[in-house]
Automatic annotation (TrEMBL):
Pathway: Amino-acid biosynthesis; L-asparagine biosynthesis. This is Asparagine synthetase [glutamine-hydrolyzing]. Its EC number is 6.3.5.4. It comes from Brassica carinata. Pfam families: Asn_synthase, GATase_7. PANTHER family: ASPARAGINE SYNTHETASE, ASPARAGINE SYNTHETASE [GLUTAMINE-HYDROLYZING] 3. The record marks E344 as: Important for beta-aspartyl-AMP intermediate formation.
């Protein structure tokens, strides 16, 4: 995971400007601690902070075309770069590095701005054509890789991997929308990613479990492309467990490089948490080299300010989940690992959050999944990327593979409806696709384990501890006057107020606070889905336990039960028995 900063059209192109851009780029060095690069052409600057994953020796950036007239600074991975290099239009080109991203400059030479759909990967990049000083900036389909755009008073246009690199120098800025390209030639933003599901029309393709399984396996395998030590984040839930299972099956029959003789897996939680127990069980079943990491509520609270600075949000559920991931990433990096696979995106695609139990019909379920996927760049993608990159670790997310999305979002959503009468719990279509009696991917009770949101699964007392801490630091009077202090996106709980105050300290501009979404939510729902159950309107909390009547450890008034992990395990076992 690298950091990029590009400034195009500076009025002042003196040494002072160059020094300023180097200083701002340094704010991104946590993302890419391995090398720094800067290309200056007249009033245009492209800076890069590199995390070396592919071709660590020669793949430094910015990257160039053969005659060096096209310059590109990239954050991300192009999984089909070898196929593109060998394609008819590019096989005559000469390459200077083994970097997967060098192909971008050559694609531009052959196809102009219309090559983006040819890319299979996660990416954010800025490309400068010095022949006419035109440029483009592009963000991947779903927004797995972060990117921001800003405008200076001098007419300059800025692009950066994180807001902190441009917020001080830009008059206005915003999150660069995923699936878009910014073209200086054509003027402004336009969408390049237009899949069938984006219209939110209800699809009708019959469910084919083998096609779904095959497409997901390919999504995992292509993300094992690396020249450095890697692992899998394994919470023991369905999604991370499937990623680990598919990865280990492939590695056992391939010559892919590994860190030692076994796949390394990582899990974090408070001692005794549901994730730690389930993660170890899955690791033992798969035979991985498992690393169980612990943290205390106080250690998490002590990290909150750093987390908000790095993740650049005040969204409650994102901060709750980012903190343990941030702490885990530090431990992972200390072990020499630079890349991990993670399970983000599955719940949005398959309606896995517990509030989907209340979806009234397949049309509303499908529309909600579309809304959730479109918003991922503001929530789980942001968390997964920035929590890990804070320590120079790259997270890859196979569930958000373009081909897999096409298949999964093309399924008639009737199959995604939660139907207890038919034995279908949340994400049944995914569970069923990997329910192989002859060659099991996972134990039955893990395959049918109830959904736990990451911030819940690391230990229920984590969220309770955060609330208690916020209650001690935010008075009733402060919350009463919140609409005057924070008139935009006003916090409605003391926990939200606490996070917002920290965010404002780091990012005081109105443009910064506008990058964070708002609105009511229950168990991670959109505001629209809150309407599905009238009881939820008085219980607005992003925790899965707010799904009253669904989660086995749902909040009871203001309290939660103490025997939650055991109840979760029992439900999983009963569900597996029912399926069998």
């Amino acid at each position: 995971m690298c950091g990029i900063l590009a400034v195009l059209g500076c009025v002042d192109n003196s040494q002072a400007t160059r020094s300023r851009i180097i200083k701002l780029s340094r704010r991104l060095r946590h993302r890419g601690p391995d090398w720094s690069g800067l290309h200056c052409y007249e009033d245009c600057y492209l800076a890069h902070e590199r995390l070396a994953i592919i071709d660590p020796i020669s793949g430094d950036q910015p990257l160039y075309s053969e005659d060096k007239t096209v310059v590109v600074t990239v954050n991300g991975e192009i999984y089909n770069h070898k196929a593109l290099r060998e394609s008819e239009s590019l096989k005559s080109h000469k390459y200077h590095t083994g970097s997967d991203c060098e192909v971008l400059a050559h694609l531009y030479e052959e196809h102009g701005e219309e090559f983006i759909n040819m890319l299979d990967g996660m990416f954010a990049f800025v490309l400068l054509d010095t022949k006419d000083k035109s440029y483009i900036a592009v963000r991947d389909a779903i927004g797995v890789i972060p990117l921001y755009i800003g405008w200076g008073l001098d007419g300059s246009v800025w692009f950066a991997s994180e807001m902190k690199a441009l917020s001080d120098d830009c008059e206005q800025f915003m999150a660069f929308p995923p699936g878009h390209i910014y073209s200086s030639k054509q003027g402004g933003l336009r969408r390049w990613y237009n899949p069938p599901w984006f219209s939110e029309l209800v699809p009708s393709t019959p469910y084919d479990p083998l096609v779904l399984r095959d497409t997901f396996e390919k999504a995992v395998i292509k993300r094992l492309m690396t020249d450095v030590p890697f692992g899998v984040l394994l919470s023991g839930g369905l999604d991370s467990s499937l990623v680990a299972s598919v990865a280990i099956r492939h590695l056992e029959k391939s010559d892919a490089r590994q860190w030692g003789s076994k796949l390394h897996t990582f899990c974090i939680g408070l001692k005794g948490s549901p994730d730690l127990k389930a993660g170890k069980e899955v690791a033992d079943y798969l035979g991985t080299r498992h690393h169980e990491l612990h943290f205390t509520v106080q250690e998490g609270i002590d990290a909150i300010e750093e987390v908000i600075y790095h993740v650049e949000t005040y969204d409650v559920t994102t901060i709750r989940a980012s903190t343990p991931m941030f702490l885990m990433s530090r431990k992972i990096k200390s072990l020499g690992v630079k890349m991990v696979l993670s399970g983000e995106g599955s719940d949005e695609i398959f309606g896995g959050y517990l509030y989907f139990h209340k979806a009234p019909n397949k049309k509303e379920l499908h529309e909600e999944t579309c809304r959730k996927i479109k918003a991922l760049y503001q929530y789980d993608c942001l968390r997964a990327n920035k929590s890990t990159s804070a320590w120079g670790v790259e997270a890859r997310v196979p569930f958000l593979d373009k081909a897999f999305l096409d298949v999964a979002m093309g399924i008639d959503p009737e199959w995604k409806m939660i139907r207890p009468d038919l034995g279908r719990i949340e994400k049944w279509v995914l569970r069923n696709a990997f329910d192989d009696e002859k060659n099991p991917y996972l134990p039955k009770h893990i395959l049918y384990r109830q959904k736990e949101q990451f911030s819940d699964g690391v230990g229920y007392s984590w969220i309770d501890g955060l609330k208690d801490h916020a209650n001690k630091h935010v008075s009733d009077a402060m919350l009463t006057n919140a609409n005057f202090v924070f008139p935009d996106n006003t916090p409605v709980t003391k926990e939200a107020y606490y996070y917002r105050a920290i965010f404002e300290k780091f990012f005081p501009k109105s443009a910064a606070r506008a990058t964070v979404p708002g609105g009511p939510s229950v168990a991670c729902s959109t505001a629209k889905a809150v309407e599905w159950d009238a009881a939820w309107k008085g219980n607005l909390d992003p925790s899965g336990r707010a799904a009253l009547g669904v989660h086995v450890a749902a909040y009871e008034g203001d309290k939660a039960e103490d025997t939650r992990p055991e109840k979760v395990q029992k439900l999983a076992e009963k569900t597996a028995e029912a399926i069998v």
